[in-house]
């Protein structure tokens, strides 16, 4: 439980992409536009309680992108909308999903490949042992 | 995913009467994870990955009907898959996993409380210990008022 163990595991082991994949699969949404608005880039939106704002601020700092806002209902969202940033995040999590939400990721990749020549390759689900990554 | 949808709790069971009672209170620590049975958008089953995760934690996966909360949900009830890791002898799986891949949301603080609870396992508790456990219980999860974010200094960063 020591801070040193924590530091070792979070800094030295390339785990941000895995952590982010799990976060998207938990609290994240991948929003796609349809019809005339299909050309607008897909976006990532994380929905969370205001208690979690410090964690999402930290994530925003680390990713250097996105905006955090609070809705009237009190629900907070962290949204990454810029297409280049969305592509960067997809590259970080590609091949690290473990749930059916990968279908939404694939649709976002199809959209970005069609409209922005993103050239993203759809990697399969991560079926490695659960204790091999975050 | 554990950081968003996992849950940690401490339960007190048994009698908390006099210290001499045979059936002294005991503590039980519970780590659980619940997911809707079907993906809300694609309606694909979350069964396979929940089966993998429950196998990893060496617990059974159960189905239950859950009342929806929050404005995002359109149906009043939905089917969920859930597992509870609460066997004293299996907690090492949870703690070794979460030491290796630490949580970052405020759930980490609930995990620390759960971790404190582990030190009371496997014994009949004295009145003093029961009071200590109650203090931990009453300041975690929804009852939490103190948020320490020092752990974000060690956020995943690459």
Task: Reconstruct the topology from this structure.
The complex is a heterodimer of chains A (134) and B (158).
Chain A: H1 3-11, H2 16-27, E1 28-31, E2 43-48, H3 53-63, E3 67-70, E4 76-80, H4 83-93, H5 102-116
Antiparallel strand pairs in A: 1-2, 2-4, 3-4
Chain B: H1 2-5, E1 6-13, E2 26-36, H2 47-56, E3 62-67, E4 77-85, H3 91-100, H4 107-118, H5 127-137
Number of domains of chain B: 1
Strand percent estimate of chain B = 15-25%
* CATH architecture group name of chain A: Roll
Derived from helix and strand composition plus strand pairing, the structural class of chain B reads alpha+beta
- What name does the CATH topology of chain A carry? Endonuclease I-creI
- Tell me the total number of β-strands of chain A: 4
Summarize this structure as a short list of keywords or feature phrases.
heterodimer, A: 134 residues, alpha+beta, Endonuclease I-creI, four-stranded antiparallel sheet, 5 helices, 4 strands, 43% helix, globular, B: 158 residues, 30% helix
Structural notes for this entry:
The complex is a heterodimer of chains A (134) and B (158). Helices cover 43% and strands 14% of the residues of chain A. In chain A, strands 1-2-4-3 form a four-stranded antiparallel sheet. Chain A has one domain: Endonuclease I-creI (Roll). Chain A contains five helices and four strands. By secondary structure, chain A is of the alpha+beta class. With 158 residues, chain B is α+β, with helices and mostly antiparallel strands. Chain B has one domain (2-154): Roll (Endonuclease I-creI), CATH 3.10.28.10. In chain B, 30% of the residues lie in helices and 22% in strands. Chain B has a four-stranded antiparallel sheet with strand order 1-2-4-3. The two termini of chain B are 18 Å apart. At the A-B interface, α1, α2 and α3 of A face α1, α2 and α3 of B.
